[in-house]
Each structure stands twice: as C-alpha cells, then as structure tokens.
Amino acid sequence: MVLLSLAYHSLKNRKLTTTLTVFSIALSIALLIGVENVRVGARQSFEGTISQTDLIVGARGGSLQLLLYSVFRIGQATNNITYESYLKFKNHQAVEWAIPYSLGDSHRGFRVVGTDENFYKHLRYRRDRSLSFASGHEPRGVFDVALGADVARALNYKTGDKVVITHGVASAAGRGIQDHNDKPFTVCGVLNKTSTPVDRSLYIQLEGISAVHIDWADGAPPMPGEEVPAEKITKDTVKIDQITSFLLRNKRRIDTLRVQREINTFTEEPLQAILPGVTLQELWRTIGYAEDALTVVTFFVIVVGLLGMLVSLYTSLNERRREMAILRAIGAGPGKIISLLVFESFLLTVAGCVLGVGLIYGASFLFQPIVEEHFGLYIPVQAPTPTGLIYLGAVLAASLLIGFIPAWKAYRNTLSDGLTPKL
Amino acid sequence: MTEPAVVCENLRFAYVKDRPVLDIERLEIARGEKVFLFGPSGSGKTTLLGILSGVLTQFEGKVNVLGREIAKLSGSERDAFRGAHLGYIFQLFNLIPYLTVVENITLPCRLHAERRGALGGVSLEDAAKAAAAKLGISHLLAQKVTNLSVGQQQRVAAARALVGAPELIIADEPTSSLDYDHREKFLELLFDSCKEAKATILFVSHDRSLMHLFDRQLDLAVINRAQTVATAE
Q: Nearest 5°: phi and psi at A385?
C-alpha cells in the first residue's frame, strides 16, 4: 500500500507534532478505557461485597435498608429478630449454613458486630475469597474481639489490646451514648484486608453482645454497684435472645426462592428475606449516576484529543502544498491525496489507541495494589470489555471521518494550485 | 510513432473570464523532439504546461498529448495518464522531503501500475539504480533528500521523471537554480537519458543561453496571441 507507507513516512517526518498528537490521543484513550475499567471494577467490587450468600434475612422493613445495615454497616435496623427464628431457619433442612449478625454497638465510630464462627468459615466476597487472619485468631471467649483491617490500622490496635465498646453507634470522636466500661474486650486477632465493609468493623461473639447487656434492664444500664462483673460471665451463663439479621446459604440454589417465600410468610414473627444480588443491583442503579457523568466527561476528552489531531493536520497543510503539487505531478489524483490525509489521521489514531491501551494497562498493573489499598477498589486487569472495544472502534471511525476535513482542504488546495503551489 | 507528441489547435485558456492568458492557433511537437520554450514572465508558460499535463482543464480548443484528447479523458484518467506517460520536473523542491532518494525515484512506478509495467520486468530497485547511474547520483540513493544540494536534488528529480520511460518530459525551469556549469552538465545528462528512452522534451526557461542545445526554440510571446500580461506566473 503505497499511500499508507507515504502517510507513515510523512508522519514520521513531522516527529514532534506527530508525537504530541499521538500522545494527546493516547491520553484520552487511556482515560476512556481507564474510566471504563474503573466503572466495571467499581461495579464488580460492589457486587463482590458479598458472594455465595443466597438470602439476607432480617426484620420486616425496606429491603435496601436490610442490605445496607447487614452488608455495608450503614444505618440501623428498626427491629431485631428472635434467636429462635434464626435457629429455626439455620437448622432448616434446605439450608447449608447461616451467619448471624447482631448489630447496634460500636467502638470509636466503627461498628461492632456480634457473630459466630460461621462468619469466618463461610463468608465469601469477590466470588470465592474467604476471610483470613493477618494475626491472632477468631474470637473464642466472650470478651474476645477480632478487628477488621481498617479498624486495626486506623486505631493502631494489635492483639492483646483492650477495647471498650459503646452502646449505640458513636461518632469517631468517641461520644457514644454509654460506654460498656465495666466489660472491656481483648483483641484476639486482626483480619486481612478484603476491600469490603468487613474491614471497617469489629467482630465479637454473639454471647459478647449479650454479655455487655446482661445486667441491663428495659434498655437502661445497671445502677452503679449493680453491674455483673465480667469475670463472672462465661459462655454458658449468657443467653442470646435476639440477633439483627443473618445470611443464608442453601444446599441447592434452586431452593432459594422457596426458602425466601417460607421466610417471608413466616407466621411467628414478621421476617423478610432478600436476594442480595437483586438488591445490590437496585442500589447500584441509584448510585450509578456518577459513572454516567464520568463517561460523558471522558467523551469530551476524546473529542478534544481528536480535535487536536485535526488542528495539527490542518495547519500542516499549508507547508505541504508543495508536496501535494509534486504528488499531483507524478499522477496522484485527488482521490489519492484525500486517501493520504485520511490515512494519516487514521494512523495517528491507531497509534494513539495502541499507546493509550498500553498506558492504561501498564498503569492498572502498576497501581492496582495501591488503588485497592487506598480506595478499597479492586480494578481487575482484564481484556477490554465489549463496551471498551466499542469505544475504541468508535474512536477509530471518528478519526476516519475527521480525516476527511484536512483531506478535503488538501483536495481544494490541489485543485486551485495545480502544479504551481501558491506559497 | 508518426503522430506528434503534442498537438494544440485553437487553444484558449483564461483564469478569469474574458481575460485570456493563452490563445494559441497551432502548436505541434514531434516525437523525440527537444523543444525549448521561452518567453517573459506572465507569457503563459506555466499555464501551457498545466494544460499539457492535464491539470488545468478549463480550456477551449483541441489538445492532444501522445495521441490522447486531454479534454475527453475523465479526471482520474488524466491523473493516471500523467503518472504513466509524463515526467515532470519543477524548478525547485521536486522531492517529497520525507522519502529517501530511491523512494522518490521509484514513487511514480509505485503509484502507477502502467508505469511500473513499462519497466518490462526490471525490479524497481534496479530501474532506480539505472536511472541514478545515468545521472551520476548512484552514491546518493540511500540518502535523505534533505541532505542533498540543489543540483543533486534536480538530478534526482530528473531520474524520477525518466524512470519507467515516459514518452514526454516536461521541465519547468529546472536549471534556473543551478549555476552555469551545472546547467550544461544537467542538460547533457537529461538529453542522454531521453535519447535512450526516445522521449520528447518540452523544456521551459527564460534563460536563452541554453537554447542552442535544443532542436527547436519556441517563443511563447510569438505563438500566444493573448497579449494580456496575466498574473498567472
């Protein structure tokens, strides 16, 4: 292809403008693909917050609310559910496992979650990752507490430290409603980072939650001097009355809807079961506007990049009138002149796309751990998404169209110049 | 080969209506002839070359180049015809700056299959080498054209005009940027090469010191009846 090689050599000859143009296109492509990858990554991170859980069960109320407090530790439950109901479904013949959550206490702004060993054993996030301990072990005693990775880092706690939990959800400043000063907990372990809300909570046993409230009556703390001393409390002496919600996994996926209906029509107390995937999608739709805005901005960046190319090609045409006249003289017709210019813009854009995609994958590869560490956003380094490929194709098509503008100008020039360029 | 290389009859051309630049009753150039065309600036020399090479098309009358009616060819046919059968040498800046010498020389053959076919099986490289050898620029083939002196550039241009044996060479003041010694040398080389290819040369210049080297001298001021001093040049 003579013209393609001409276009290539012509671009190579204008090294500086070519390099700058390719770079500006590459940066906008990198941004476009980057935003797309972040979008997909954010979505996958979000949807991967909880996996392998078929149902989330709590007191009847809004399904979004149940998801928010059970999975994201945002907001409060309006009602608790009885431990009996939980046991009933935990031991249901279709159920494989259940993870109970008892919420409502906090420590310096971080939620304290009462749960049991199933949490460490069965909780999965991002498809099939399970929890693991960076140090120590899961809570075994009533007053043991395990820390999420962010909690340990923010508060600089390590195993063996004493932690006093606060009744109700306190602000980070620590002004809770009422501290459970009389019954401090001991840090028994720190979880590895998961980049999910798991990192931002403290975990104690269900019995621990009951234990700190053992001497409370009618929602009020015991009078001074009437506290039950911590050392008198053992696992056998505390009784668990209620929990806030629980996660459920069925033995067979096909039972999920049946169990859900069974829970929703449970007559002994008003319960509701939600499908986490469906509710997560609902939630994503409500907060997904930001990604649209980001995509729109990126498109404008692409437009600017292509306009830059247009300007650089267009302004070069005056210097190139002589070249066009030579090409005309050796028999290159207007069609070939037009093709040459269109090829040039196409080559610039192809180079920009290749470089841009290279940049963004290099950057994702390099910065993936840092982004995950600091923003809790896991961006998978994966082949371009179909949407990403469509974007690239659209940009290349646009470059062909845009290439016709300088091409047309060059064609007009050759018509008016003939073989004697007006310089 | 009996028909002439160029025939113009009642040729009239105007860039602006009613202000003709060219008005030639009859002009005939035989095959293989070396014609020196001269005339003052603005006498329409470059315009005539534009018409003969099929770039300027808004003319009246009959123009026949190498047996083809220029007016009857379509735009792309004219381009293809020019590429395949004509060699064109400008006064200056003949070369594509981003190609090497050899790439410049072979460009017409790469753009036009017909011109390439005229090489008769000789490879592009060899054809370029042969043309370069005749013009004494063999040692420059791999150079970038921007490294060449003006004289060397003009020889490369001549090599490009000659490669693939086009029948008509049109040269628009190719020597005006050369000093006298180089002019003669350049013309000698050009003539030798053309003789071999039996090409016709239409050489335009206002430098009459060279005119004795040609078969025929044409004063455009004489054959052009349009007396207006145009601004075309």
A: -70, 160
Q: pTM for this one? A: 0.73
Chain A's closest residue to B45, CA to CA, is: A420
Cα dihedral angle (A245, A249, A251, A256), rounded to 10 degrees? Answer: 80
Q: Which residues share a beta bridge with B88?
A: B170
Place of tokens 């560490």: A373
Cα distance between residue A386 and residue A248, in whole Å: 34
Between CA A41 and CA A47 the distance in angstroms is 10
pLDDT at A54: 93
Task: Flag whether residue B157 sits within 8 Å of chain A, measured between CB atoms.
Answer: no
Measure the CA–CA gap between A386 and A381, rounded to whole angstroms.
14
Closest CA to B183 of B173, B194, B169: B173
User: Which amino acid is present at B138?
Assistant: S
Minimal C-alpha gap between B2 and chain A (Å): 26
Task: Give chain B positions within 8 Å (CB) of A330.
Answer: 82-83, 88, 107-108, 111, 160
Tokens at B81, concatenated: 């015809």
- The torsion angle over the Cα atoms of residues A221, A225, A227 and A228, rounded to 10 degrees, is -170
Element spanning A404, H or E: helix A386-417
ipTM of the complex: 0.81
Residue in this structure with the two tokens 């999910």, named with its chain if needed: A196
Residue B222 confidence (pLDDT) above 60: yes
Residue tagged 């069925």 (tokens): A250
Given this model, what pLDDT does residue B69 score? Answer: 83
Alpha helices for A194-250 (secondary structure H): 206-212
Put simply, whether B193 touches A (Cβ < 8 Å) is no
CATH 3.40.640.10 at B33-57+74-223, yes or no: no
Query: Is residue A349 within 8 Å of residue B97, measured between CB atoms?
Result: no
Domain boundaries, chain A: 2-46+288-417, 55-274
Residue given tokens 């012509």 in the structure block: A10
User: With an 8 Å Cβ cutoff, is A420 touching chain B?
Assistant: yes
Where do the structural domains in chain B lie, given as residue ranges?
A: 33-57+74-223
Among A326, A333, A420, the residue with its CB nearest the CB of B79 is A333
Disruptive mutation site among B57, B86, B93 for chain A (greatest number of A CBs within 10 Å): B93
Asked whether the beta carbons of residue B79 and residue A331 sit closer than 8 angstroms, the reply is: yes
The ranges of chain A with pLDDT < 70 are 170-177, 376, 418, 421-423
- Which one is predicted more confidently, B227 or A389? A389
User: Using 50, 70 and 90 to split pLDDT, how confident is the model at B233?
Assistant: very low
